[in-house]
Design a protein that fits this description.
6-stranded mixed beta sheet; 263 residues; alpha+beta
Length: 263
Amino acid sequence: MTVRPLRLTLALSALLLAAGAVAGEHEDNRADNALRVMREIQSVPDSSIPDRLLDEARGIVVIPDTIKAGFVLGGRRGHGLMSVRNPDGTWSNPVFVRLTGASVGFQAGVQSADVILVFRSERGLDNIINGKVTLGADAAVAAGPVGRNAAAATDGALRAEIWSWSRARGLFAGVALDGAVLQIDHSANRGAYGYGITPRMVFEGRTPTPASAPIVAFRDELEEATNAARHARRAVPAADPGAAQAHPLESAAPATSAPLTQP
């Protein structure tokens, strides 16, 4: 009498394990793509994230292959990863996020672009961890300067909470990030880390399933990039004492994060 329920239980367990394996493989591919984007952009000094902004970042979002398409009315969608700075200055394991939005205006065509967002304050991070953030409304966003030694262009841009970069592969007009919504991808996080997890658990390394090798590789790439940026900033005064005074807002000490609000 108990054989059939036992068989059904075993079959259900096998199906759940298989589904988890498929989901984990899908999320690993996303981590691999995010890792590729970071490496490619940082490998070209003239188009990389400036050392100062990378060193002082509170959080980083990398969204490969974001698709934006439309004709007058447009839409945007992309999936990526987000890591936050730990209190000790290291980077956390990433959570999975998605970027969506609509736009109205002169636009035509389809564009695929790699998008990187650098958070400069805790407020924007708290919003996304607790649900979602609308760029330009919940947090000010500005187009990021490029080049490892680039400085912010205007005082208005300096007040931005989020810097944004994109690398386009396609044709599109009227592109902007204002109005786009960034939110946690809970389904992807379950596939990568297990059920019943929160963004806080991921950031603190308290997930039922340990981070996979591709996810750890993405986190390690952030560590290497920010360490390189920090060393480069410290080397500037030795090479050119006047360079450090050219940008008085730049601090020589690396930034650390205060604990984020519990979701």
